[in-house]
Amino acid sequence: MPHIEQLAPHVADLIAAGEVVERPASVVKELVENAIDAGATAVVVEIRRGGMGLIRVTDNGCGIAPAELPTAFLRHATSKMRSAADLGKIGTLGFRGEALAAISAVSRVDILTRQKAARSGAALHLEGGVPGAVEEEGAPEGTTITVRDLFYNTPARLKFMKKDSAETAAVAGLMQHLALSHPDISFKFIKDGADALHTPGDGKLESAIYAAMGRDFAKSLLPVQGRGGDVAVSGFVTQPLLGRGSRSMQVFFVNGRFIKSQLLTAALEEGYRNQIMKGKFPGCVLSVTLPVEAVDVNVHPAKTQVKFAREKEVFDAVYHTVMDCLDAKGAPVSAPKQVQQAVNPRNDFFQTMDAKTYREEAKPAAKPQQAARAVWSTEWKSAARVADSVQPKSGYAAAQSAKPAMGALGKPPASVTQKPAMGAIGSAPASVISRPAEVPVAPKAEPVTKPAPEPAKPERPFVPAIPAMRQETLDLPEQQTIEPVKEAPWRIAGEVLHTYIICESEDGCVWLVDKHAAHERINFDRLKAAQEPPMRQTLLRPVAVELGREDGALLLENAPLLEQFGFACEDFGDGAVLVREVPADMDAEDTAATLEELAEKLRSGRSLDEKRENLLHTMACKAAIKGGWTSDRKELEVLVEKVQSGEVRFCPHGRPVAVRLTKYELEKMFKRA
Ligand code: ADP
Ligand code: MG
How much is the pTM? Predict the structure, then answer.
């Protein structure tokens, strides 16, 4: 065996430096974090050749005393922590006292700094970690650190550097995150002599988003704000219709620190369930704030990952904040619902009928008239909304089962398999989301979005506070959302292509409503909210459906679940299933095709909840008016009213149910404007 010897200090330093300083972006990160910790309100970052040539960070923070300048570059030298107990409550971005030591070990560093009260500043030059003498020098208030020739003394590391363009991109991404997490600080980023980013530092997140992520993205956003227990959530999320092709625009901060987190991504996307198109992803800039001791930032040297002490609480806070914001966006802002209903005889018409009665009445009509099978009762309105929030599947547990990768975050808390806190009707447990005390909720909006007669209201523990002003300042594109209206019902001009209802609103806009999509959504909400199994119809002659052994067995295995949806099936041998009963609002002739589809859905669902949700989709679709059928006038009116009220906004697959053309847009098409 060779001798055991302690490494020479400079070798040990180089090894340690490699852990902190991986690439130019890590240098920029450490230096900017130091500037932020120093209380800077303006930070300028300049890089050349992807940072390999030069990195310069200038701040207007507190500066460093000349006498302490060499100390700052020693390993484990920090002003931010004194004892092991401090480790449990890290409030600054830095704390290891390693960055300056590591950076200076692998580069040539110049620092120029002046404290506020000091008459003059101090300068120091270091090469490979070896400091020169501290010199007195005139300097502006704050600190400027220049890093040149990164990795000049570690050729092995130098070889691993990517192209300058890749390093520049990494720094640019970092600058974006830093700017977004500190809207109160003005960031300027100069790459190879050109301004690449400049935020105003006016304290408004919108301004930072606008500057760092672009105008179009900024305009696609809705503000969100909420709180669950100790966890506060705020920021912006994209409107469901403006989903993006990837997750690249999802930005999360925890206690001001940019982090990557599958848990937060899952919670965000869960909030959009059934509202966003398949294959599209929400974008966001979301800030999660929680007590420092409830989050461990010390799990990764680059500190881009964190460990939450109570994962479920964090998940629920994000999920409910997002979901309630999206919900509120479509809630009526007009007169309370019951008033509308009283003056609107159409509702009564449907209220007094159930599916069977209506079917009987519609019998003499030709097949297309079967379209008028739906039962719409106003109770569903509220029931569906309540159900949305009490569905046990729409929570942390569901995301846990649906996204196996989440397991990597650590063992889920014991309560994971329970209903999410929001589901608990009645007295709210401590972790239940509650309205943040400091955020005022417009008193006017409340009785309208949550009318008194709705049973859900008293129990609903969370009202997101959405500052109306912020929404306006974002200047959201009008055409994309269906704004609830308080004026007269839309005039139905007619139906085209047996699919779209054309309407005119009081404000002179033309609306095209996809009747199948709208009806599918209504069915979906109704089925989801239903407490009782749906009404059934006994088939005159049981239908034998040949499904093959595998699918046949799968359906029979799930017979109790199918029972809940109104199907009575039994084994007919050889992979065939005999169906005796089907849901009343389904076309009996569709039995075989529906069962085939259900088998397919059962196959794709991993958990029971997922299977149930998949079946819901199929049943909602099967019970809906088909595009291509001619509809009854009353039917059109009810559909349109649901769309107008904002109750129905997306089909369960996230497609919009209505599009709007403004008068101006039409005039432009006709070259009148
Ligand atoms: P840490 O940030 O973990 O404390 P660093 O090696 O990054 O360790 O910095 C060491 C110390 O140098 C800091 O604790 C701080 O006191 C001081 N320092 C570093 N950068 C700045 C700056 N830009 N302005 C003021 N003080 C700074
Ligand atoms: Mg630091």
Answer: 0.55
